[in-house]
Specification:
Layout (H helix, E strand, L loop, with lengths): L1 E4 L2 H5 L4 H13 L6 E4 L3 E2 L15 E2 L5 H18 L8 E4 L13 E6 L3 H5 L7 H12 L2 E4 L2 H11 L6 E3 L22 E5 L8 H10 L1 H6 L1 E5 L6 H9 L7 E4 L3 H10 L2 E4 L9 H7 L4 E4 L4 H5 L4 E3 L4 H12 L2 H14 L5 H16 L1
Parallel strand pairs: 1-2, 1-5, 3-4, 5-6, 6-7, 7-8, 9-10, 9-12, 10-11, 12-13, 13-14
Helix pairs in contact: 2-15, 7-13, 11-14
Length: 367
């Protein structure tokens, strides 16, 4: 089978979940049953691909352009794709890596697209004026088949956009962190911090976590709260911490690469994931891979991902969140059991499995 991914995500994302997904499944597919896999990207910025990989974009890697040149780079890629990809008659599958109005799919190929979540549709303040939502709806309608990364995303897509369920398939993601940066651990004392990872905006529910943490004398006096990634604390977040009388040396923000994050997972008392909504939720699996007990919201796709390998709570209930966290930190037996269950749970998710199941969808659609 001849498979082609378009240039979109690798041309504007240096690092990130979507480009990591494309990188992983493209390279795993190329090692299965002789399938021919290409990523057409005349100019790209993504950092995941290396010359030693089975699949690399078929163009030139460039430094990330300034904002005023991004449309020019996109124009070069689009024009080249119209000349070199659209006319092809020997492609079987054309997988769009993001949402676009441009139809680059050759007539010989079936067009697929992956929908990662319905966050914009569920949480946008101005759904009628959200241009990306309109482009996404057009791309989804145009596709021959849609891959959803969780059953929850599939249900939301069907309900919100009216897509026929038979036009969709669910393929779960894998996870990627492989190395532990021992030298990068924060000097806060082994197992005496709670770890939060990622962005802290709206639906991520970080402010409720701050309230749960502040309401617990046990947590705020005996455990640091470390936030990895997401940028420095906002003025609003700092103001909330002050109003909750949270000391700045108890709540901190850390940045770094996968080695830093892996070290944090490996030494945390637990990993906390209070998000109201996710398309899949990779971070709990990453935490499980390093034996870190997971305390997780019982919302959207998260129970589907974590199964019984996490302590669940209602993300709308601050007290319930606090009790779930305290239950784990107060019980070494519970923490150990969750860590053990987590190590078993992650065996259900791998990029090899994701690639093979994606190929099965391709084969079904291609006929």
């Amino acid at each position: 089978m001849r498979i082609c991914f378009d240039y979109q995500i690798v041309s504007f994302q240096q690092y990130g979940g979507v480009s990591r997904y494309i990188y992983e499944i493209a390279n795993h597919m190329a090692g299965i049953d002789g399938h021919e896999v290409k990523i057409f990207a005349p100019l790209y910025v993504n950092e995941y691909f290396h010359n030693s990989d089975k699949v690399c974009p078929t163009g030139i890697k460039i430094p990330p352009p300034p904002n005023q040149l991004r449309s020019l780079i996109d124009g070069v890629n689009l024009a080249t794709a119209f000349m070199l990809v659209k006319p092809r008659r020997n492609l079987d599958i054309f997988h769009e890596t993001y949402y676009t109005l441009s139809d680059l799919c050759p007539g010989s190929a079936k067009r697929l697209i992956t929908v990662y979540d319905m966050i914009h549709e569920k949480f946008s303040n101005n759904p009628n004026g959200d241009k990306m939502m309109q482009i996404k709806a057009y791309a989804v309608k145009r596709a021959d088949h849609i891959i959803c990364i969780s059953q929850n995303t599939q249900r939301d897509l069907v309900e919100i956009m009216g897509v026929p369920e038979e036009k969709t398939s669910v393929v779960h993601l894998g996870y990627s962190i492989t190395s532990i940066g021992r030298e990068s651990k924060p000097s806060v004392g082994t197992k005496h911090y709670i770890l939060y990872v990622g962005r802290r905006v709206g639906y991520k529910n970080f402010e409720k976590l701050l309230h749960a943490y502040a309401d617990s004398p046990l947590l705020k006096n005996e455990f640091h709260l470390i936030c990895f990634g997401g940028g420095g604390f906002s003025t609003r977040e700092l103001g909330l911490m002050e109003s909750l009388t949270l000391s700045r040396n108890r709540v901190s923000q850390v940045s770094g690469g996968d080695d830093v994050l892996a070290g944090l997972y490996a030494s945390a008392a637990l990993f906390i994931y209070p998000s109201i909504y996710e398309g899949f939720g990779l971070s709990p699996l990453e935490a499980m891979a390093f034996g870190c007990p997971v305390v997780c919201a019982n919302s959207s796709c998260l129970p589907e991902v974590v199964g019984d390998a996490a302590e669940l709570f209602d993300p709308a209930d601050t007290y319930d969140m606090r009790m779930a966290i305290e239950k784990v930190v107060l019980s070494p037996e519970r923490a150990s059991l969750l860590a053990e269950k987590g190590r078993e749970r992650i065996k259900l998710f791998s990029w090899e499995k994701c690639a093979r199941e994606t190929l099965k969808v391709y084969q079904k659609v291609h006929g």
